[in-house]
Specification:
Strand content: under 5%
Largest sheet: none
Structural class: mainly alpha
Low-confidence stretches: none
Radius of gyration: 22 Å
């Protein structure tokens, strides 16, 4: 994430000069900036998904700790993990 942020700042500081109607460099820079913004957004979404997955799993484990004699909780933890892993694209 830090690298993407550094690239975003560097590109914004290196704005090419548009002379005599030739804006090819500015168009390329704009396209790169858009791609970096998309990558930044996708990385943020992935990180939020990881945080949400671990929070949900921790809540499941907390409820399991209160009733340790129930044998179904390990199965429930696996059931909770599978959809979130599929959502993140970690498994099919």
């Amino acid at each position: 994430m830090a690298l993407l942020n550094d690239l975003r700042v560097w590109l914004s500081l290196e704005t090419p000069i548009i002379e005599d109607g030739n804006s090819f460099g500015a168009d390329v820079q704009s396209h790169l900036s858009d791609q970096i913004d998309k990558a930044f957004s996708k990385a943020g979404t992935y990180m939020n998904g990881c945080n949400r997955h671990h929070s949900d799993r921790a809540a499941t484990v907390r409820s399991w700790v209160t009733m340790p004699n129930l044998a179904d909780y390990p199965v429930m933890i696996a059931a909770v993990s599978r959809p979130s892993h599929q959502e993140q694209g970690l498994i099919e």
